[in-house]
């Protein structure tokens, strides 16, 4: 009630984050399996970015960038530190313009209120204060409640532990709030779905792509994953993604049934991707290779966002706040750096291939020692069609071509072309970090 009035005609904004969903496994991106038929059809009514890159390969810093427009290396958000109050958030900024704001998150480990990403939301639903939910939000609690043996004991079955939020719960909570919100105000709502991260499944989708949910490979901790073990994880991942696709499709149907499609800017993206042994690594948060940071990004609003458009220019999720502020209109200045991605569908000539796109993760303790992030901080920079990765701990540098080598199998850093390009990447990264350009050097004999 104390908010200022919103601008006349201001659109609603619905930001949907599919936790741990990599672009490589979306059927819309050319994946062989039909994992996302509902979202594929919906995305064709808007504009999609085929090469969107997250600012980090795990949840908290990536969400912090989504809400502040800052690169991950600029933020406090880390494995053991929450997002601080240094930078304004998207929810704060939209609330100051009269928006009703609400967040509904299922990632209770790294997007709960303790992490700081709730700042600016008038309503934020993560978990109720209870023994069960608080236990689930501790590392030990998650280990216990999500183990297969405990789930079988609780007769939950098929990966749905009693203290895990699935898409149905997120949808229901959002729709309850939506139907009770002040109708005179536009809304900004954030939804985080963790179904794919936690491999949630139901009988309808179990086995759709061949996963045997009852026969998890007996993998030895710290060992490299075999091809068969990685394939089992891919099958399970794809089936969870297909289930989530149906649930998000149902949510979009509910939005249409309420007559809100025309008045709502809907954005679907992911906070980071996933790796399945492409570089000997499983999961996420351990490297900055493309499978872990290449994510889907779609904007839909009839009459405002062009339909059937695909933008191939690499872009950063860091630009999401500036884009949203551009699309909600009003012409007022906003606090977010970056640029509006809408410029790329309004005028393809607006692309600036010299503008760097950066990703960062900080060193991870107590992980497999040969994982890159166990050695030191990692930084990645895209310039044009080249992508550079440096490990600050080992001082190893890698260079890959974006279009011809999407899985980054062919390191160009030791080639004449790569050697000529490395100094420029070092200078650009040094400028971004505010550090000496000599920070990156190859480890070979140096």
Describe the structure.
With 446 residues, the protein is α/β, with parallel strands linked by helices. It has helices spanning 37-43, 59-68, 90-95, 131-136, 139-145, 148-153, 167-180, 227-257, 290-293, 320-328, 342-346, 372-375, 416-433; strands at residues 12-18, 47-49, 52-53, 100-105, 123-125, 187-193, 264-269, 275-276, 282-283, 294-295, 297-300, 309-311, 315-316, 357-361, 378-383, 386-391, 397-401. The strands form 4 sheets. Strands 5-4-6-1-7-11-2-12 form an 8-stranded mixed β-sheet, with helices on both faces. A 4-stranded antiparallel β-sheet has the order 14-15-16-17. Helix 1 crosses helix 8 (227-257) and helix 7 (167-180) packs parallel to helix 8. Mean pLDDT is 88; it is low at 154-162 and 438-446.
Topology:
Elements: E1 12-18, H1 37-43, E2 47-49, E3 52-53, H2 59-68, H3 90-95, E4 100-105, E5 123-125, H4 131-136, H5 139-145, H6 148-153, H7 167-180, E6 187-193, H8 227-257, E7 264-269, E8 275-276, E9 282-283, H9 290-293, E10 294-295, E11 297-300, E12 309-311, E13 315-316, H10 320-328, H11 342-346, E14 357-361, H12 372-375, E15 378-383, E16 386-391, E17 397-401, H13 416-433
Parallel strand pairs: 1-6, 1-7, 2-12, 3-13, 4-5, 4-6
Antiparallel strand pairs: 2-11, 3-10, 7-11, 8-9, 14-15, 15-16, 16-17
Helix pairs in contact: 1-8, 7-8
User: What is the string of SSEs from the N terminus onward?
Assistant: EHEEHHEEHHHHEHEEEHEEEEHHEHEEEH
Strand order of the largest sheet: 5-4-6-1-7-11-2-12
- What is the gyration radius calculated from CA atoms? 21 Å
What is the terminal separation in angstroms? 63 Å
Biggest sheet layout: 8 strands, mixed
- Please count the helical segments: 13
Helix content: 25-40%
Coarse shape: globular
Low-confidence stretches: 154-162, 438-446
